[in-house]
Amino acid sequence: MMQWRFVAVMVGFLLNISNLMGQNIPKCSEIFFSEYVEGSRNNKALEIYNPTNKTVNLGQYRVVRWPNGSSQFSFALSHKLSGFLPSRKTIVLVIDKQDITKVGLDTPVVSILKQKATLFLGNTDSLNFSMSFNGNDALSLEKYNAQLGKYVAVDIFGKIGAKPNPCWTDKYPYLGQGNWYSMDRTLIRKSWITHGLDSVGNGILMAINPTSNFNPTSEWVSYPKDMFDSLGSHNCNCENMGLFDIKNLELQFYPNPTVAKVVFNIEASMVKNICLVSLMGEVIPLELLSSSEEQFGKLELNLENMKPGMYACWITLLSGTTFVGKIMKD
After folding, report:
1. How far are the Cα atoms of 50, 302, 304, 308 from residue 260, in angstroms, in the given order?
2. Contact 91, 58 (CB under 8 A)
3. What is the pLDDT of residues 290-329, one digit of tens each?
4. 24 and 201 in contact (C-beta within 8 Å)?
5. Domains and their CATH numbers in the chain
6. Which of 138, 168, 241, 254 satisfies CB 3.0 to 4.6 Å to 182 for a cystine?
7. CB hemisphere CA count around 17 (13 angstroms)
């Protein structure tokens, strides 16, 4: 009976994920956030990358800030974009603080960041605060959908409605414990990320607010505060998608059962994300740790804080291939 229940949970979980994530999300089909800068004082910037093979009209898009755990939209916290973004190019949005005579809350951005800017957002008359993020705010990139008559998110940074203290971090549940990720840092999207989309239904592509925790380490690489050198270009695998067609990999865990850690035979560079699902259907994100056998490409999962029991381990590769295996935690 237990075995059948476990199988049912795995099947239900995969169907749930399939419905949520979409089975055929086209890669490199929509613009997305490629860099996030939350630096000292007002040194704040967002980079947006166009992975498509066409020039994109940015007039269809807006950036929205969701501050301090709020899920209430405000026009004062949104800003419509303008201009055109060529294929495989970026636009750099910088907070509109340029007056060198100002101090305090209106301290201008440093000159090197100002030079990187393509478009300044956030009016100097303090009527717009879309770029005034401080580490615990979620951000969404949204596109106007004529079919629905409203804006739809195509990428989300953070989790709308969540309020980390003081910011998102690298330790589960990523809400303040561990190393800071979204405050006093520059974050660059990992090169294998080809879109910010999560669902395709009725021909509508969209990003979905995380249902569990937002783990910034899964898609972002962290760099020191006030690092601006990389703004203006982005390294993305959209130019070499053929390299990531990975098929027929056998998934094996060891030791299994385990009391603490488990290693699986799959190359680190192939993995997009990984999580566990319990027999009760609870989805549990995991910290992904490099093993002592890193030179062989193996990964190690830390299960020390998990309750004893049986879990389905769900792994998605960059190619979109999904594997499920079972782990027994003693």
Report:
1. 42, 6, 4, 10
2. yes
3. 333 343 456 677 777 778 888 777 777 776 666 667 788 8
4. no
5. 2-18+243-329 (2.60.40), 32-235 (no CATH)
6. 168
7. 23
